Amino acid sequence: MSPHNDAPSLPGSFDDHFSSMILSDHPSMTLPDTLKLPYLQYADSMSDATLTDSDEETAIHPTRPLVPGLYVPTVAFFNKATEELDLATIARHAVRLAEAGVAGLTTQGSNGEAVHLSHRERKIVTSTTRKALDNAGFHDMPVIVGCGAQSTRETIELCREALLSGGDYALVLPPSYYRPLFKSESIIEFFNDVADESPIPILIYNYPGAVAGFDLDSDAIIRLSKHRNIVGCKLTCGNTGKLNRIAAATMASTPTEVGSGFMCLGGSCDFTLQTLLGGGSGTIGGLANIAPKACVKIINLYTAGNFKEAKKMQAVVARGDWAAIQGGIIGTKSALESYFGYGGYARKPLPRPTPEEVARYAQDFKELIALEKTL
Hints:
The chain is an alpha/beta fold. The protein is built from 13 helices and ten strands. It has helices spanning 33-46, 53-58, 87-99, 119-135, 152-164, 186-197, 218-224, 240-250, 272-277, 292-303, 307-340, 355-364, 366-372; strands at residues 22-23, 26-30, 69-73, 104-107, 143-146, 169-172, 202-206, 230-235, 263-266, 282-284.
């Protein structure tokens, strides 16, 4: 779970459709039967491939529009013993979220431990997610793919890989490693260059905590929104005033108004209602990995005009999100393990929770899980 400014596995019980098996070239990786052939074909063609313009032109890529609502930055799951990707759990989790009524999924975010994955693993996670959604009948659900990197060149490469892996949109962080050397226009040029070359539309990801405190202001995002291939933003900065300014300037789409099509999204579930009241399009929030129905319900109540009930539910979600913000991906995975029988651990060097921490995380999410089970 990504913090924002107001706060500074062993799989569970799977049915036959998601039964695991061992891959010959990945002895510890588990894979559902329905994904075995597509994965092997994909791995053969993509493991060391150089992407070309013709690859992009021939990629099967149906248009899946973004709609206002809740998007979930999905968790990446690993075998507890080997840390290899647990594809069966990745697939099953994606379907669980889709069945809860979310608007779309996001792979390769902080909840997805993108910084712990190789390029090849990132492609596999996205293609597994796309295939799982298609197999379950969610053909129209869009997949946004985190594509942030420190160079313009690698960011564009990640966008191209996202397309070929089944992604519909790219979520792009600004680079920060050489930030002291940037000129005033460097970040504007970065996003324009990426948008010029990306084969899929991009969303700007403003998350100061992940980029050495670099915080894009509303003027910069409004300016960048004029690019034809920049279609939205995610604001994990938690600044609702900034969100309101961007939403108004771009005539962002909302659950009740079609607007321009630009998606102005909050970056955490604890200010979903505030986002909507400020003219935003919805939320990309990691808490929805644990309680997707509760997070969706806030948006549905708001859309129906039931603000009193939406406010009550937002309070419960905000308390749960505070637990997720404090525990990060370690706490999120621990809660999934405690309440749903899967989750496992984050990759090293992140530590595994102690028994005392597991108990505390379970207690911290107890109220939220109780609400989720009523929906």
